[in-house]
Design goal:
globular, D-Amino Acid Oxidase, Chain A, domain 2, 15 helices, 7-stranded mixed sheet
Length: 572
């Protein structure tokens, strides 16, 4: 990560690298703050089988059955009570399976995954060593280390250098190799080989096998839209670029407001169809990009003479052809010899500039790095710039053609835009409607407390008329809307920047002023959006633009906004 990655130019939040289990703890704490009760396994044991489970997080429960009809869903869950497996039925309106890559909900609803399976099997070793952390901080700080030497091969993820927390990913080839081969002692020896010396404080915390896939669910919902999948349950990517976590968060962001709008009565049930319509194309695109990025990373060992496809081909040969008839010990010996031969390519006697072959390989390696053709870790254009082309949005004829380029795995900068389906651009504004005159991002103007649309306008008479019409139509639809009036920073004519009288009798509005950039450039909200100040933007509760008009609405604003809300809320 470079210093410019933390400048918060295109977002009020900067990039972060954070362990999932720490994130889980933060989310559980947030749920408790919101009034949920997190039940430990022991507390869950004491709950009556027919007890109400509303606003409870039941730890230690597993979904083992789903019965859905037109009216509701009943989830059968299994848990331990007094050392015995018990079952409890939980009835609900909608069931969301956000239960990970091995989703029980996906399996029970028989939703298939499509894509590339079994790209690589790996062993994940979670370990602690402050000694290693201190060495890396002082000598070669980084977040991700690909280690290739004659003693071993692995990818080291530095989750926390200060605390000395790491995860090592090691290639794994069952059945010739078994999990028992990777004992804590064996993993310690491998870590010492990869690091180059012994670590006095090395502590192996956990060892787990996993399989890398690149797949997307054939559908994201079933059972008449009462059962849905989200996160890793719907897409499994190679861990190359953080797409799994980011795409999963986007799923939840997209789905939450639609369920809430349905339950509060402002939207029709058909709004749930837009979840799959919007999210599945993004998941497919990110799958392609993560595969490209994974293969770009593999170009490095290939350049060193360690073509990963060779080891995988030998492994498939042993498992699927006459090799499977050989004694187990001989199969393992063949694999070990292939791996040893591969690691021998990394010896200093071969890999140096005096050796013609080594010189050629080092030159190829240099070309990969200097050309930016290896693994990329940041994708702002995809993480922030993804856009929904159809769904709960009103398309216009002025939108540019969607970005359909083939993923390259090379970093591109994110360029904000205000086209329907895009995320609301970030710009700092000063709130004029309260005494604090706080500076916030335009993204912060979208409520996180309730399902509320945001209409952004300029302080013009025709825009105020549109705003009053929007308030009226939103009320007709039992929907909430807030109006944001953006005052230009350049205007200093003594006129009060207050919209109360212009919007009366409606009161849910906020007056804000553009904040100039420190460089002295004029910060214009409408220029960022590539629109004139006569335009208007309607933002969904998930911060994506639902509708916009580049200039004033020429038709009756009330009739026009009725059409807009009808489309967005699934009533048309």
């Amino acid at each position: 990560m470079q210093p410019q990655d933390f400048e918060k130019v295109v977002s009020p939040a900067s990039v972060a690298h954070y362990s999932q289990y720490k994130l889980t703890s933060l989310m559980l704490k947030r749920l408790e703050d919101l009034g949920f009760h997190v039940s430990s396994s022991k507390e869950s044991d004491s709950l009556a089988l027919d007890s109400v489970v509303a606003r409870q997080i039941l730890m230690g429960h597993e979904c083992v059955g789903i019965d859905a009809n037109k009216e509701s869903v009943t989830a059968a869950v299994s848990f331990l009570k007094g050392g015995k497996h018990m079952k409890r039925n939980i009835q609900c309106s909608i069931l969301v399976g956000a239960d990970g890559a091995g989703s029980a909900v996906r399996r029970l609803t028989e939703i298939e995954m499509r894509g590339e399976r079994d790209l690589q099997k790996l062993i994940s070793v979670h370990f602690m060593s402050r000694e290693l952390g201190e060495y890396l901080i002082n000598s070669r700080p980084g977040m991700l280390f690909f280690i290739f030497n004659t003693g071993g091969i692995g990818v080291l993820v530095a989750h926390d250098l200060l605390q000395g927390e790491f995860v090592l990913q090691i290639p794994y080839y069952p059945p010739q190799q078994s999990l028992s081969d990777f004992s804590p002692e064996m993993c310690k020896k491998l870590i010492f080989n990869l690091v180059g010396h012994e670590l006095s404080d090395l502590d192996v915390a956990d060892i787990k096998p996993w399989v890398m896939h690149a797949e997307v669910a054939e559908k994201f919902m079933c059972c008449e839209n009462r059962v849905m999948l989200a996160g890793d349950a719907t897409h499994r990517f190679p861990p190359a670029g953080g797409f799994g976590m980011n795409t999963g968060i986007q799923d939840a962001h997209n789905l939450a407001w639609k369920i809430a709008a349905l339950l509060q009565g402002s939207a029709n049930s058909s709004i749930l169809n837009t979840y799959e319509t919007e999210r599945r194309p993004i998941a497919l695109f990110n799958t392609s990009l993560s595969i490209q990025n994974f293969r770009a990373a593999m170009s490095v060992p290939s350049a060193l003479g360690l073509d990963p496809t060779v080891a995988n081909s030998v492994h498939r040969f042993i498992n699927n052809t006459v090799g499977s008839m050989l004694p187990t010990g001989l199969q393992k010996a063949i694999l070990d010899n292939v791996f040893a031969l591969g690691r021998a390519q990394l010896s200093e006697s071969l890999l140096n500039e005096s050796n013609p072959l080594g010189y050629q390989r080092l030159g190829r390696l240099k070309s990969i790095f200097e050309g930016g053709k290896s693994l990329q870790l940041q994708f702002p254009a995809e993480d922030l710039g993804f856009r929904y082309l159809e769904g709960a949005i009103v398309s216009d004829n002025e939108s540019e053609v969607g970005d359909s380029e083939v993923p390259s795995g090379r970093r591109r900068d994110y360029v904000p835009c205000a086209e329907p389906g895009s995320r609301l651009p970030h710009m700092y504004v000063r709130i004029l409607s309260d005494s604090t005159r706080e500076v916030v991002s335009t993204l912060d103007l979208v409520s996180i407390e309730k399902v509320e649309f945001l209409l952004i306008i300029s302080p013009l008479q025709e825009s105020y008329e549109l705003a009053r019409a929007t308030f009226k139509v939103a009320k007709e639809n039992k929907a909430n809307v807030k109006v944001c009036v953006v005052w230009p920073s350049s205007r200093d004519d003594g006129v009060a920047r207050e919209s109360k009288s212009a919007l009366a009798p409606w009161e849910n509005y906020v007056d804000v002023m553009e904040v100039k950039k420190q460089s002295g450039e004029e910060a214009s909200w409408w220029s960022i959006c590539k629109m004139s100040e006569r335009g208007s933007i309607l933002v969904r509760p998930d911060q994506h633009i639902a509708w916009r008009v580049k200039s004033a609405v020429t038709l009756d604003p009330t009739l026009h906004m009725r059409d807009v809300f009808s489309i967005i809320l699934g009533k048309q």
